[in-house]
Amino acid sequence: MKKKVVILGSTGSIGENALKVAAALPDRLQVIGLASRTSYPRLLEQAAQFKVKRLAVADPAAAEACRAAAPRSVSVSGGDDGVEALAALEEADIVLCALVGMAGLRSVIAALRQGTDVALATKEVLVAAGGLVMDTAAKHGARLLPVDSEHSAIFQCLEGRDPASVRRLVLTASGGPFAGRHDVDFDKVTAAEALKHPRWNMGRKVSVDSATLMNKGLEVIEAHWLFGVPFDRIDVVIHPESIVHSLVEFNDGSLLAQLSQPDMRFAIQYALTGPARLDTGLPALDLARLGALHFRAPDPIRFPGLGLARRAALTGGTAPAVMNAANEVAVARFLTGGLSFAGIWHTVEAVLSAHTPHPRPTLDQLMAADLWSRAEAERSITAAQPAVPGAPLC
Ligand code: MG
Asked: Could you give the CA distance from residue 230 to residue 225 in angstroms, rounded to a whole number?
C-alpha cells in the first residue's frame, strides 16, 4: 500500500529532495498535499507533476495569487491556519515538516494531535518546544521520525537496541566553511562566504547555523528530545568529510555508526519508508577511494555557538526557545548585511542573559517567549550598531 505524504516546505532544499525521493518510489509514496511559505509558482509546478490537489501557502498575498493561478481542481488554503489545516489532513499517513524555523511548530502539533507520524526536518520545533512536542506525540500515539542526517544516523544505530545499553551519543559536525581556519576574522565574514558550505547543499538559515556551529547546538537539543538521552551524554566531534553521520556508544565501549554519501535523500527516504531498505539509486561509498576520515574536537573559544546552546538547554523551560528565536533574528540580519558574523553569537548571548526563563511553559507561553526574544534581539542589534557617519550626535 502507498503511504500518503504531506510535505510542508516543499519548495525548499529538503522539500525538493523529498519530492525526488517520492518520484523515485511511485509504488511506495503518494504525495497528497504540499505547502510553502511564498514560492507559489514552483508549488504549482510540483502540484502538476505529482497530481496533488491540496496546497497551502502561508503568506496570505501569495496564497491569493496562487489561488488565481491554480487549476480549478486544486484547492489552495492560505495563511498559517491553512498550513496547519493541511498538516492535520485526516488521510495523511505522514507529514514531512521542512518549514524554516518556528513556523513549523503549530503544524507539527496539529499533525501529531491527529495521530499522524511526523518526519521532522525543522529542528527548531524540538529545540523550542521539545517537551510539549514529545508529550503530544506520546499522547496521540504518533511518531517523530528524524530527517536531519545526524539524527537519522543515531535513529538507525539505536533501532532494536535497549535504551539502557546506550552510554553516549556522538554527533558529527562538518564544522562549516571556517572550522580549522585560524586566518578568518569573524567580524569581516560576508554572507556569501558563510553560505559556501564545503559538503552539503542546504538552505540559507541552516548553512549559516552550520558556519557558527549553532546548528550543532540545536542538534544536541534535538537529539536529547528524540532519544531521551541527557545533555551531558551527547557529545560533538568535528568530522570535515561528512561521511560518518553520527555514532552511538554502548555500555561495552563499542561504537555503531551510519555512513553514506552526504546527500539528504538517504535520511529523507529512511524517514518516509524505513525500516525498509529500498534502493535509493544513489551511489554507495567507496571507502578505499575515500582513503581517510578525520575527527577532532570542536573549538569552544572560537566557536561559542555550541556552548550557548548547551547553556540554554541546561537552563531549560523557555530558554531554548529564546536562544533559538534570537538566533533566527540574528541570522536573518546577518544575511541582509545588518549584523556581523560574530554579532550572531553576541546577540544570542545578550538575549539569553536578559531572559528570565519560565520553567514549564505552555504552547502560548513558548510563543510569547519566542516573540519577546525576537524583539529583544532586534533591540540588541540596533543598540550595538555604530552611529551612522554624519548623523547628528545627541
Ligand atoms: Mg544536520
From this structure: 9
